[in-house]
Amino acid sequence: MSDKELQVRGKQELESEGERTKPGPVFVPAVDIFESESEITLLADMPGVASENVSIDLHENQLTVSGEVEPLTSEKEEYLLQEFETGTFHRQFTLSDRIDQSAITATVKDGVLRLVLPKAEKAKPRKIEVKAG
Amino acid sequence: MSIIKWRPGRSGYRFDPFSEMQRLQREMHRIYNSLTGTWEASRPAGVYPHLNITEDEDNYYVRAELPGVDPEDIEITAQDNDLIINGERKIPVEGENVSYHRREREAGSFRRITSLPTHIETSKVAAVCKNGLLTITLPKAPEVKARQIEVKPT
After folding, report:
1. Range picked from A5-19, A112-126, B95-109 for highest mean pLDDT
2. Would you give the end-to-end CA distance of chain B in angstroms?
3. Least enclosed by CB within 10 Å: which of A131, B24, B34, B45?
């Protein structure tokens, strides 16, 4: 056991940017992003999201990560206490490096998405010849 | 009913609109809870993890979001009508030559104790952790279940 005790933090709800087709709350997942020489890795907490319900989109430099959750309860159940809500997870980032789109890998384990974005080979410096006039 | 004269500024009878509002809010909460049968005010506790508790005819269901927690690091204890959830969230170190841009996810241990409205069958409590979502199913003790009594024709 580590000494540190986990502090409770409420889920952060996303302020709507345009109306969504699917009703229900949208939450911002907590993320870790770190970079090595060859790749950028993103870890996102998305409890309740199965791997088949994650969608990742990289357009230009805009990376969008979202995940859908299944309804939590069956119809027969009645709430006695509700401390958290469930809904879609959604977050967007702008990437500064060029990413090799074909080599992106994503895995989900215990409700954590791991997205590995390998950097594309840097555009080689172009030599410009100066011709004698 | 006696009439009390309201004297502003005098101690003991100062009219405070805020405390009056809070009192009203508490009262409304109490009435609402007694109407809906909620035995605990649905206000989140300041302890990790947050819980949702539901019930149907036979069971109570306790759910918690525990992303990144290995199911092996969760320990659940049930006794009478108490439920204790113990565990630890570990975040492994990611290589040596990495630089972090964002670090919002936290590691640490947690312990949450909650009580259920009635006794439970502790021997039949089952827990599943799927995609970082913990669901504990607690069957109600037979003596608290509503029993239907058949009327036999004579």
Report:
1. B95-109
2. 58
3. A131
pTM for the whole structure: 0.75
Say whether residue B142 is in contact with chain A using an 8 A CB cutoff.
no
The CB density around residue B53, as the number of other CB atoms within 10 Å, is: 24
List CB contacts (< 8 A) between A41 and chain B: 94, 98
Distance separating alpha carbons of residues A21 and A36, to the nearest angstrom: 38
Residue corresponding to tokens 């608290």: B144
HEC profile for B18-53?
HHHHHHHHHHHHHHHHHHHCCCCCCCCCCCCCCEEE
- In eight-state DSSP terms, residue A51 is G
A82 vs B contacts (CB less than 8 Å): 42, 52-53
- The tokens 């709507």 sit on which residue? A16
What ipTM score was computed for the predicted complex, to two decimals? 0.82
Helices (H), B87-154: none
- Subunit contact A45:B98, Cβ cutoff 8 A: no
